[in-house]
Amino acid sequence: MADNKEVAQNMSNESDVDPSLVQKNPVYELVFLLIVGIAVFIAFISALGYHPVSARAPLVVMAPLILLMAVHGFRLFRATDKAYFKDFFDGIIKRKNTEQVKILLFVGWMLILCGLIYVGGHYIGSALFMFILLYFYGKEKLKTSLLLSIIATIVLYCLFEMVFSIELYRGLIYRYFMGYDVF
To answer: What range(s) does the DUF1468 domain occupy (predicted)?
Structure first.
């Protein structure tokens, strides 16, 4: 693993920002704060639809959390030099910074996983996600990809359903075929 100075040097190639300061770039923290803030806000909106007794705990936790995140984000944004933002977005758009591209790919893959789980449920979504990563991204053989995806899904099912007695989310497709009005 590379040390901080080497990482900072790699991150700031062709950059206007001093390489010694790149490792302290607060834009990464702001982006992370934004992603977590959006997730917490969506959960907060969702909790507003709960029964008042059930909604009390999530709302008591999330309301101050949203406020703290907003205040911290605002303070961090004001204290951040605008050259950091330019460097951050130039690194993404011009692909100067491979670390940023890896982060964005990871976030994209996680969003795809969430979408697959939402539509197909944990078992189908996880199996499809593993297959896609193994076959298309990992360049594994079709047989290997299918076999690993199926075995991992069976292990997930046995672990959660039989050992822990936890029924995982079945997905929109399952709910639709069971007669729920999901669309």
So the answer is: 66-168
